[in-house]
Amino acid sequence: MSEVKKIATREAYGEALAELGESYPNLVVLDADLASATKTGVFQKKFPDRHVDCGIAEANMMGIAAGLSLTGKIPVASTFAMFAAGRAYEQVRNSIGYPHLNVKIGATHAGITVGEDGATHQCNEDIALMRTIPGMVVINPSDAVEAKACVKAALDWEGPVYMRFGRAGVPVINDREDYRFEIGKGILLREGSDVTIVATGIMVAASLEAAKRLAEEGISAEVINIHTIKPLDAELIAASAKKTGKVVTAEEHSVIGGLGGAVCEALAERMPVPVCRIGIEDVFGESGSASALLAKYGLDADGVYRKVKAFLG
Amino acid sequence: MNNPELSRMANEVRKGIITAVHGAKAGHPGGSLSAADIFTFLYFEEMNIDPADPKKADRDRFVLSKGHTAPGLYSALAHRGYFPVEDLPTLRHLGSYLQGHPCMQEVPGVDMSSGSLGQGISAAVGMALGARMSGADFRVYTLLGDGEIEEGQVWEAAMFAGHRKLDNLVVIVDNNGLQIDGKVENVCSPYPIGEKFKAFNFHVIEIDGNDMQQIREAFAQARSTKGMPTAIVAHTVKGKGVSFMEGQVGWHGKAPNDEEYKIAMADLERIGEALCQK
Known about the structure:
Strand content of chain A: 15-25%
Radius of gyration of chain B: 17 Å
Distance between the termini of chain B: 15 Å
CATH architecture of chain B: 3-Layer(aba) Sandwich
Number of domains of chain B: 1
Number of helices of chain B: 10
Oligomer: heterodimer
Helix content of chain A: 25-40%
Strand content of chain B: 5-15%
CATH architecture of the largest domain in chain A: 3-Layer(aba) Sandwich
């Protein structure tokens, strides 16, 4: 897929904010000294009066976002996933989640594709943390097109939304006429009959590529893009599980508590079938290039292909 | 209201605190009583609010950052007419809207849910910033405990408010000197409090926070202070008004039993009668 155009979802996030600023006059973007990295700097240039740099103080930023929302603003609080979901977890839970405030969180640099910065900055736990908060929507877009669409959908949604973006470029896979984004609705990307691959974020493109290789060997894999981990499209996943009888989940996140966890919870109650979870196997990451790390941790197309093969026996 | 009227109302608010905490068989009387005069001044004199329209857009906002003193806030709100005073004893009961810590979705007049220390001030700063960005002229008040300011987030918020020169924000520190584990200066001293806020570019006013005239003057001074937020360091007595609770750390988070309840209410009755003769 080397010829396919690659764009980081954080780039699309920043562009979307700048594009939507005009039609959403109440949109206020907050950052914590990372505007150039989270790409909210693009919004800042266009709307300097509506960009609030809180300095290196993420806990306070979440509280300020809460307060701003109570004056009618639509605040989008932006920082790395590690600090948004990790450091400021309790502020997000108590100051935003509990009062169910209309605050959006744009968390960039999620997962191990942070790369060279290493384990301290590679947040593989944010989906798990955020989806335990009652009323919180959790979105993990698969490419730049979906990232842009999810920002708009989040602004139109009443209540807290956590959006997860990545640092590294990912193939654009949703650039087509009939693409529609709806919060909570999974997208069936490829039909199959032997196994279902439920993927989220950058693992959607990798899963599609793996499905192609599997097809060459006569294995028919269905691929579902779950961009919204909460609320989860359990109906779509269960229907596919009923058809194929085997489910693989794929995410750039810990296998504990994220997409894999959510899918297992849903299937255990609706359609119990064997499940194989692909993700970070309960370990911390390390420094390296994004592509080298994805290969090492089995999160590229080859990794998915091999895991599915082994799972199917 | 004039000062004697406010002091009498504060005494009624204190009775409501005791009644609520006694009814709950739990809760935080000490820091509610110490701040009762401030709650009363804010809701009966200082703030532009309307109990008939708790969400009106141009109202002044109050965030109880030290959310565990909800009985003080609830009693002030009830006496101001936001909900029936008779409901106060349902505090902390299953099914009651009077949650252990303020819940803005449940309680009329509560502008922000709070309770996890250090977080309320950030929300208040966000409200003050929102007013500034919208060109609205409402003011924002937030009350913190002197133990609470040990939380680092308080100083993140203070740094931001000072940096942004949010002169529509008033931070009040209820300096009653006691926290759960003992005297604040022994646990992890926040002193000097006033100098700290000065260093964070606040206008600082130190007052006796149980003296209505000093409270009045402080809020007037805050209102006329331009170009910087104001911090009022209110020196108060924890448990103020109840003989056996005053200055006693043990009454931070404990309810009076039936006998103690009678003594406490008798104390406040006597204070009320004395205030009426003034």
